[in-house]
Amino acid sequence: MSIHVGIIGGAGYTAGELLRLLLFHPDVELKFVHSQSQAGKPLHSTHQDLLGETDLLFTDALDFDGIDVLFLCVGHGAAATFLEAHPVPDSVKIIDLSQDFRLKREGNNYVYGLPELNREAIRTAQHVANPGCFATCIQLALLPLAAAGQLHDDVHINAVTGSTGAGQAPSATTHFSWRSNNVSVYKAFNHQHLGEIGQSLHQLQPDFAHKLHFIPVRGNFTRGILATAYTPFAGSLDEAKALYQDYYAPHPFVYLSDSNPALKQVVGTNKGIVYLEKHDDQLLIISMIDNLLKGASGQAVQNMNLMFGREEKAGLTLKALAF
């Protein structure tokens, strides 16, 4: 039986990736793609690579009764506002790709949707908050250490992201003539994803009380995130590798590499690749994902598969690259 899907905010980058995945998912029937600005236009008028793939039109109508799950691909703050104005039936599951419900607070019944952290809770969840892209990449680097109680000091993190991480609307720091052949730092030490990263580390290692020193970098490429993190680790490199291998053994999208990886290995996929080195007392962890897939829409489909009892990798095994 097909999973009937609706999408809110269908014109952006994350929605475009989500559409590419869902249109070819073996168990999905796409019922509507909502966009007030594009209503009545074909999907391929915005997502041009979908020409010939679907005849669906954007709509400004909402048919919650005809769907099983609703994906919210709207901007930060807009998801909560939308749900206040448009109550969704209790029978409809929700996967929110904004940051509105990622942090635990009173009245928030959303499960944090990082399968490598909360897979079993996601399986039974009615509402899931999809993690942020930086947050996903950095957590994949650190979760095994936290699970083993091995975060005993501050963690230093540097991560570079592609321009699609800033969304589809051009801005002073995302348009081509500024971004091309250029690199810059932004939101040093106070990026919004630090809250959810810290929340997850505390979930696995409740006594973790050290700082995360995070320097985000705008890269001169379109998609992907490469993060480097380092922190003291008393064990050997082989012990660290065994710890990571054991942690990620049940998780089908995360791979521990024996050689220093390159970002192109993950672009267009739902993979996370992790690589370890030991330098004196410091453990260096390199982690990389595609920000639009494992960092957003691919992970959202992964969560949908878990919520509806489908095989976790369903619809996510092919390389899907539009940029």
Automatic annotation (TrEMBL):
Pathway field:
Amino-acid biosynthesis; L-arginine biosynthesis; N(2)-acetyl-L-ornithine from L-glutamate: step 3/4
Q: Where are the transmembrane segments?
A: none
Please provide one cellular component term from the Gene Ontology annotations of this protein.
cytoplasm
**GO annotations under biological process?**
L-arginine biosynthetic process
Q: Which EC class is the enzyme in?
A: oxidoreductase
Concerning its family, UniProt says:
Belongs to the NAGSA dehydrogenase family. Type 1 subfamily.
> What protein name does the entry list?
N-acetyl-gamma-glutamyl-phosphate reductase
Q: Which organism is it from?
A: Catalinimonas alkaloidigena
**Lineage, please?**
Bacteria, Pseudomonadati, Bacteroidota, Cytophagia, Cytophagales
